[in-house]
Amino acid sequence: MHASQSYQNLNTPQYVKALFYCTEKKTCTNLALATENSYDTMYREFERSVAEHGSVVHNLKKIARESLNNDEITLVIDDTQVNKIYSKMIEGVDIGFDGCTKRGVQGIKMVTSLLTDGRTSIPINCVPFVGKELAQASYKGKDEIAMSIIIDTKASFKIKRLLADAHYAIKKMVHFLNKEKSAF
Fold this sequence. Notes:
The chain is of the alpha+beta class. It folds into two domains: 1-67, no CATH class; 69-184, no CATH class. Helix content is 36%, strand content 23%. It is built from seven helices and five strands, in the order ααααββββααβα. Strands 1, 2, 3, 4 and 5 form a five-stranded mixed sheet that branches. It is globular, with a radius of gyration of 18 Å. The two termini are 24 Å apart.
């Protein structure tokens, strides 16, 4: 987000704005300080968002619709990991490669997406990736998660092109993108 842009006038929950504004660790206290709200206000927003499934994604899409040049939208898909180096008992924590340290690190893996028009970038989705051992029958590979994000995003936006790292350059994904008539 550019400093000259403001999302304040959009009708979005305070916690979504706080995620944009907060430069510190994303705790309720820091998010509240970033938006000049009380801790209680921020906490109530989180409770409401849990009760309303998909509200974060919905509100981020709303911001994207109102902020981006609709003729120049690029969808960027990537995977990331929130490192949890001291966690041994959290379900879903797995070993992943940390590109900064060039080592394997424990963390929570996710497939993320953002929309950009080359000027403004808005993160719009983040789906946890759970390994086969824990997920069992409900297991989805990162490529399958990315495909569901692409389908969901294309239902709301006219995507000019898709960008992703080499992990997604597999036959299955290329076939899917050609079938969907998506430039990549």
